[in-house]
Design goal:
The protein is an alpha/beta fold. It has 8 helices and 9 strands. The strands form 3 sheets. It has a 5-stranded parallel sheet. A two-stranded antiparallel sheet has the order 1-2. A two-stranded parallel sheet has the order 8-9. Helix 2 crosses helix 3 and helix 3 packs antiparallel against helix 4. This is 3-hydroxyacyl-CoA dehydrogenase NAD binding domain-containing protein.
Length: about 200
C-alpha cells in the first residue's frame, strides 16, 4: 500500500533490529516529521515527536490520527475491529514533547541532528545539507547516517539504518554524500520536461 509515497509493510522480524532500535525521537512536528512518526509507530516502534511549538504538535496528532484512519480503512476494510485496534495501538506508541533534550534521553535513533546520548544514531531527512558537515560536529562521527554514507560511517551503523528503514516500510537506497543525494538530483534533471 502506498501512503504519502511510502510503501507500508509488516514489521521486520530482525531480532538484531528490534534490539537495536526501539525508541525513535523525531525532531520537528511538521508534515515530514509527523509522517515519519506515523510510519514508525505503524511499524511497532515507540516514537517521541518533538517540536518547540505545542500548536504544531497538536496539529500533527490530529493529522496522524486522520491518516492512520485512512490506512486502517484500506488495510482492514473487512474487519473494523482490527482497523480500530491498529489505529489505537499506533497512536499509543506516539508521545509528543516540546523539550528536545529530555526527548532524546531514551532514544535509540534521532531523526534530525541534536545533542543526544553517545549510543544514539543520528539520521537526517535532509537532501541539501552535507552529511559530512553535520558529522563534523559530532564526537562519534562513525555513528552518523541517513542511508547516505558519510566518509566515516561504520558498516554496523549503515546496516542498522538500512534494517530500520525496511522495518518501517521504506525501500532503502544508498548513495554517497553529494548535493541533492539521489531523489533531488533526479528531480532537477527532469524538471525542464515536467515544466514544459
Amino acid at each position: 500500500m502506498i501512503q504519502f509515497g511510502i510503501i507500508v509493510r509488516n514489521l521486520s522480524s530482525s531480532s538484531a533490529l528490534q534490539s537495536a532500535i526501539k525508541n525513535v525521537t523525531i525532531i520537528g512536528g511538521g508534515l515530514m516529521g509527523s509522517g515519519i512518526a506515523q510510519v514508525t509507530a505503524q511499524a511497532g516502534q515507540n516514537v517521541t515527536l518533538v517540536d518547540v511549538n505545542a500548536d504544531v504538535l497538536s496539529k500533527s496528532q490530529k493529522s496522524i490520527n486522520i491518516n492512520l484512519g485512512k490506512v486502517a480503512k484500506k488495510v482492514f476494510k473487512e474487519n473494523p475491529q482490527e482497523a480500530e485496534k491498529f489505529v489505537t495501538e499506533s497512536l499509543a506508541r506516539i508521545k509528543t514533547s516540546t523539550d528536545p533534550v529530555s526527548a532524546v534521553q531514551t532514544a535509540d535513533l534521532v531523526v534530525e541532528a541534536i545533542a543526544a546520548p553517545s549510543h544514539t544514531i543520528f539520521a537526517s531527512n535532509t537532501s541539501s545539507l552535507s552529511i559530512n558537515e553535520i558529522a563534523s560536529i559530532v564526537k562519534r562521527k562513525d555513528k552518523l547516517l541517513e542511508v547516505v554514507r558519510g566518509a566515516e560511517t561504520s558498516e554496523a551503523t549503515y546496516k542498522t539504518m538500512m534494517e530500520w528503514g525496511k522495518s518501517i516500510g521504506k525501500t532503502c537506497i544508498t548513495c554517497k554524500d553529494t548535493p541533492g543525494f539521489v531523489v533531488n538530483r533526479l528531480l532537477v534533471m527532469h524538471l525542464p520536461v515536467i515544466l514544459t
